[in-house]
Write a structure and sequence with these properties.
alpha/beta; D-Maltodextrin-Binding Protein, domain 2; 2 domains; five-stranded mixed β-sheet; 12 strands
Length: 463
């Protein structure tokens, strides 16, 4: 393994694990070599957006906020190259200065956020998770309601659902989305004449044909336990397609995985594919998957699409061979992607330079801002701004495979964006059922019991 690969994969492993452990979506957590990996310049000729996202340039723009300083607090785990590029462009355009401050991540970082909010010492802009963790902060007390800002209308509805609490919008997306889906090796599909499956039955049939042809149909990387969860968590779109109120009922303790057939199936899918895995799937790790898929050593890998950037850093010339499709459910009509939305910028309700802050946020999600961001960081999924065309050099798996799901409204967020209840034993349970040690029904029952413990810690009264 060469030095570049070692550095890239070691630094990305801890980031990847964090994004699956109930901490929301990693803002730019994608690849270690953020400068070297996605450094190719982006052609902006293909980028189009609605006029409302592109603020008109005026001679006064550069002087409008001269002398104004905006403070921004972010976590140190976030790869900040894209953010820094947009900040530099905004400072040049508007004249203000943005001072960034880093905080630690994880639980300690959450406590810092809560302490600074409670003490009134929060920065003008705060970078934090979208979804259930935002709701737990009581945002109406601390953050500015952005609902009336014109740029909010340009944001994707699925994303907006993760930063809206009691009808008020609080956040602006920091980066692109990513999804939990099936990454696949296109040459195998072309050689065997396979079609992208829209149902689980079709997917298993494809796996059978691949196995018969001597291919390793499924890549398993259970040596990194967090990866074993992606099939289960990424199946949430199918759970809600069958039970639209499942997240709300689950948090209330009214719905359980063991008593909801569509939810139990999320565990069953792990068992269904066991016979197709690489022989060393219990010990193989995430970095092995990043080797195997682009080199055709396995056809399917159920993974977060942040892996696209990891693979690009190692095999940039092979990215055209990588495709993405949604984890199939029972019906082709309800086929869709489970999305991990990005972290967001939130505005301190008591910041002194609110006009300047709003100008920055508007710029950040404008065509000009997104073009600037995309010139530094390749997206691992579509952006959360409607009408913005992905750059011409975006991964084909993103612009050709994932974008159509977003355009058709066939997306939904992972469960962790809708409830804070996520059992800490999820990886272990997924490993057990995925290795055939327990049945799907046993896994569902064990996960319900695990979640009930956390619900009690959160003060929820489960029945």
């Amino acid at each position: 393994m060469n030095l570049k690969k070692v550095i890239t994969l070691l630094l990305t492993a801890s980031m990847a694990a964090g994004s699956m452990m109930g901490c929301g979506s990693s803002a730019e957590t994608k690849t270690a070599s953020s400068v070297a990996v996605p450094s190719a310049a982006v052609s902006t000729e293909a980028a189009k957006t609605t006029s409302s996202t592109a603020p008109a340039k005026t001679a006064a723009d550069n002087k409008r906020y001269d002398g104004v300083t905006i403070t921004l607090l972010k976590d140190s785990d976030t790869v900040a190259d894209g953010i820094k590029a947009v900040i530099a462009a905004a400072e040049k355009k508007y004249g203000f200065t943005i001072e960034t401050e880093d905080r630690v991540g994880g639980d300690e970082g959450d406590n810092i956020i809560k302490t600074r909010l409670a003490s009134g010492e929060m920065s003008d802009i705060c970078l934090y998770n979208s979804g259930s963790l935002l709701a737990a902060l009581n945002p109406s007390e601390y953050f500015e309601d952005l609902s009336k800002e014109d740029f909010v209308s340009t944001l994707d509805e699925t994303y907006l659902s993760t930063v809206t609490v009691d009808g008020k919008v609080y956040g602006v997306p920091v980066s692109s989305t990513q999804v939990g889906a099936i990454l696949y090796y296109k040459p195998d599909y072309e050689k065997l004449g396979l079609q992208v499956p829209k149902t689980w039955t079709e997917f298993i049939a494809n796996c059978d044909k691949l196995k018969a042809a001597g291919k390793t149909a499924m890549i398993g990387t259970f040596g990194d336990s967090w990866t074993s969860q992606v099939m289960f968590l990424g199946d949430e779109y199918n759970v809600e397609a069958a039970n639209s109120t499942f997240p709300k009922d689950f948090e209330a303790g009214k719905a359980k995985y063991a008593t909801t057939p569509a939810a139990t199936k999320s565990f069953q899918k792990l068992l269904d594919v066991q016979k197709y895995y690489n022989k060393d799937y219990l010990s193989a790790k995430y970095d092995d998957g990043c080797d195997m898929l682009p080199n055709g050593e396995g056809t399917h890998w159920v993974m977060l699409t942040q892996a696209l950037s990891n693979m690009y850093s190692l095999y940039p010339d092979k990215m055209k061979d990588i495709g993405v499709f949604a984890i199939p459910g029972d019906s082709a009509d309800s086929n869709g992607l489970t999305v991990w939305e990005p972290s967001s910028f939130y505005v301190n309700k008591n910041c002194k330079n609110k006009d300047a802050v709003m100008a920055f946020l508007k710029f950040y999600v404008s065509k000009e801002g997104l073009d600037t961001y995309a010139s530094v960081i390749k997206p691992d999924g579509p952006y959360c701004v409607k009408g913005y065309a992905l750059p011409s050099d975006a991964y084909e798996a993103v612009k050709n495979d994932m974008q159509p799901y977003f355009d058709a409204g066939k997306t939904g967020t992972a469960l962790e964006f809708k409830t804070s209840v996520k059992g800490s034993s999820c990886p272990a349970i997924c490993q057990e059922v995925g290795s055939g040690q327990i049945s799907a029904a046993e896994a569902a029952k064990a996960y319900d019991e695990d979640c009930e413990k956390q619900a009690a810690q959160l003060g929820l009264k489960w029945k």
